[in-house]
Amino acid sequence: MEGLKLSEAELMVYIHPSKSRNVFQAICRELSSLLFQYNESFDGVLLAYDASVKSKQAKILSGLHPYFGVRVNTRLLLFDPKPNSLVEGEIVKISAESIHVIVLGFSAAVVTDVDIREEFKYRVRDGEGSFVSRSHKRHVLKLGTMLRLQVQSFDEEVMHIAGSLIPENTGCVKWLEKHSEEALHTDRDHKRRKLA
Asked: Which of 118, 150, 155, 180 is the most exposed place for a label (fewest CB within 10 A)?
């Protein structure tokens, strides 16, 4: 999935003197407060981190409460979907007008009917709606399906993705992977016959 990146950073974490007994726990608390929020400094949403204290020395800041700064080496897993990148998520709601998806368990995505390619037709069977491909009957989008969609925009404030199913490389992840494997095997067989 695109939009995920691993980054290494050297950070200065400021800690209240009352937390000086267990500095590493205080650092983890500070970094944990940044999880699942868009951060402009990181240019993405922090999903996970691995921190190690660089040195035992700290810089004391003057003021009413003299915080001290500790240098920390971190490895950060960030999520920042750019326009035209591909992301995957689970379909949680489907109607004739839209498909609602949860990406990575925390970010909502929606694909409106104008962004669903003409190949898909909305059907209701046994009270449940689904989009079925007209050209490939086994390519079905229904509740619980893992969906690959193209990002049109990402609202950092509310973690909302506007998506599209217009490109051919979007749709049900399982079907897309199976279909690409079949195409790969067909190409191999075709090349073997040419060589023989």
From this structure: 118
